[in-house]
Design brief:
Helix content: 55-70%
Largest sheet: none
Distance between the termini: 55 Å
Radius of gyration: 22 Å
Number of strands: 0
Shape: elongated
Number of helices: 7
Strand content: under 5%
């Protein structure tokens, strides 16, 4: 009978929990709090922009006709549904012969598509919020500054996630028996895997969905600010 896992549950953001389920070690206790980390990330120029967004002079409003908010919200829902469907398609592909490197390439493509669509949506929602009133304009300015501050670190973090996914898939492939028509000398990342373990697929899906949620956090926040109370 299989022994139950003795790994304690991990608290924290869904992305950290998903990484732990994929086999990554839990983060060390005592990591710096987010406010302290933000203090080290915001340089002088960003600090000035942040102060201006909070209580400085606002940019002049443009004369563009505001878009229909319901159209933007529908576009957001459509984009999220499409990305979730792409994740489900990748999970389905892992039930058939597919090498680890093909999964890694598909993951990279998902990350690029998600970055492109959420970036465009975030800008469109921010533009509409800035046309609302002074409070909306300040929130839009604040979001723009925070995007500039966090984007490079988010890019590096999700790039590291992709590397960890590749490493975990290689480990899972190495632990699986080689099919009769394959040479045992084939490297795990090149071997054709007949069907990936259910636990690996579930952990990878959790991770990809956590990435999706992370990218849509600012989108959801701006969307909520645009909707009537």
């Amino acid at each position: 009978m299989a022994k139950p896992s003795l790994r304690p549950p991990v608290s924290g953001p869904p992305l950290i929990q998903a990484l732990t389920r994929l086999g990554e070690p839990a983060p060390t206790i005592g990591s710096p709090a987010l406010p302290a980390m933000l203090g080290s990330w915001v340089d002088w120029n960003r600090a000035v922009a942040l102060a201006r967004a909070l209580d400085g002079a606002l940019p002049a409003a443009d004369d563009a006709t505001p878009a229909d908010v319901s159209v933007l919200l529908a576009e957001r829902n459509k984009a999220r549904t499409a990305h979730a469907a792409a994740i489900d398609a990748l999970m389905s592909s892992m039930q058939a012969p597919v090498p680890a490197q093909e999964i890694v390439r598909s993951h990279a493509a998902l990350q690029r598509a998600l970055l492109t669509s959420t970036g465009r949506l975030r800008g469109a929602l921010r533009d509409q919020l800035a046309r609302r009133d002074e409070a909306g304009c300040r929130l839009a300015e604040l979001d723009a500054v925070m995007e500039q501050v966090l984007a490079p670190r988010e890019y590096r973090t999700l790039g590291a996630v992709a590397e960890r996914v590749a490493a975990q898939l290689d480990r899972a492939a190495a632990a699986m028996p080689v099919a009769a028509d394959e040479s045992p000398m084939i490297a795990p990342d090149e071997a054709t895997i007949r069907s990936w373990p259910a636990a690996t697929c579930a952990a990878l899906r959790d991770l990809l969905m956590a990435e999706l949620d992370l990218r849509f956090h600012p989108i959801d926040g701006l969307s909520a600010a645009l909707q009537p109370n």
